[in-house]
């Protein structure tokens, strides 16, 4: 059994190599540790090892861990205020959970409808937070995947209205490639996200599209080659997840 620190340094090394291979600077790529399903103690161990950015996929699950972290003296940076670790929601946000999402997360990386964005904006506004958000794009045929359809009228409408959602701050795009496909399919998917970013950034010049969140344990090096600015790594850092109930 390897320790968290050993797994982290192996990942760091692979990120370095991928950056060199693609002519990118290491500081252009942020590492997000995906701690979903793992206990708060795993987050504390990662914080100890120097990680300050986490991804969680369920609001309620993180609400519990948030309390445990607070009890251990680790604060979570909310919106752009308060210092602490950053924890982002990377799972689908249901519109009835926006109040809690705005209360507990530093950012929401899975905006997938105008409706949920408007509700999250209202929730953040009530709390006086300004939440950084990413827009999730669906580049997979799978029913289970969420996200805006690329090129859709709904996505255009979202970007048109986003500047008026003052309590959210659009920072870029994220995607999850199709499950169980080969790495070449993942690469195509990442490339497509980068191209979408370029075209939307031109059309909606008032918004920021700096962040491209793509790449997970099985494909992060390819994502870095294709321009990822944020890789979301769970299994390769924390080990296999036991299936959620
Ligand atoms: C679980 C999850 C990850 C991490 O996946 P691993 O393959 O364990 O690295 C990344 N992104 C999202 C959206 C996830 O739900």
Number of helices: 9
Main beta sheet, described?
8 strands, parallel
The number of distinct β-strands equals: 8
Order of helices and strands: HEHEHEHEHEHEHEHEH
Strand-residue proportion = 15-25%
Looking at this structure, what is the CATH superfamily?
A: Alanine racemase
Low-confidence stretches: none
Indicate how many domains the architecture comprises: 1
Record the SSE blueprint.
Blueprint: H1 4-21, E1 30-34, H2 40-48, E2 53-56, H3 59-71, E3 86-89, H4 98-104, E4 107-111, H5 114-127, E5 131-136, H6 153-161, E6 168-174, H7 183-203, E7 211-213, H8 220-225, E8 230-233, H9 235-238
Parallel strand pairs: 1-2, 1-8, 2-3, 3-4, 4-5, 5-6, 6-7
Pyridoxal-5'-phosphate (PLP) binds next to strand 8 and helix 9.
Q: How would you sum up this structure, described in words?
A:
The protein is α/β, with parallel strands linked by helices. The chain has one domain: TIM Barrel (Alpha-Beta Barrel), CATH 3.20.20. 41% of the residues lie in helices and 16% in strands. The chain is built from nine helices and eight strands. Helix 3 links the parallel strand 2 and strand 3. The radius of gyration is 17 Å and the shape is globular. The site of pyridoxal-5'-phosphate has 14 residues, from strand 8 and helix 9. Pyridoxal-5'-phosphate binds next to strand 8 and helix 9.
């Amino acid at each position: 059994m390897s320790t968290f620190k050993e797994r982290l340094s192996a990942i760091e090394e692979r990120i370095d190599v991928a950056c060199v291979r693609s002519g990118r600077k290491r500081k252009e790529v942020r590492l997000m540790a995906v701690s979903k399903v793992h206990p708060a103690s795993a987050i504390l161990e990662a914080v100890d090892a120097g990680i300050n950015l986490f991804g969680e996929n369920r609001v309620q699950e993180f609400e519990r861990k948030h309390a445990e972290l607070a009890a251990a003296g680790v604060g979570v940076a909310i919106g752009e205020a308060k210092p602490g670790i950053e924890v982002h929601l990377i799972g689908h946000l249901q519109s009835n959970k926006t109040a809690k999402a705005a209360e507990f997360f530093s950012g929401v990386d899975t905006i997938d409808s105008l409706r949920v964005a408007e509700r999250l904006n209202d929730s953040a506004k009530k709390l006086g937070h300004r939440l950084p958000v990413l827009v999730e794009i669906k580049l997979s045929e799978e029913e289970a995947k969420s996200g805006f359809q690329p090129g859709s009228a709904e996505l255009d409408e979202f970007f048109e209205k986003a500047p008026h959602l003052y309590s959210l701050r659009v920072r870029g795009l994220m995607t999850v490639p199709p499950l169980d496909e080969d790495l070449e399919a993942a690469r195509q998917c990442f490339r497509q996200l980068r191209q979408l970013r370029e075209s939307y950034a031109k059309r909606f010049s008032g918004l920021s599209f700096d962040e491209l969140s793509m790449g997970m344990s099985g494909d992060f090096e390819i994502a870095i080659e294709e321009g990822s600015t944020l890789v979301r790594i769970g299994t390769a850092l924390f080990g296999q997840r036991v299936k959620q109930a």
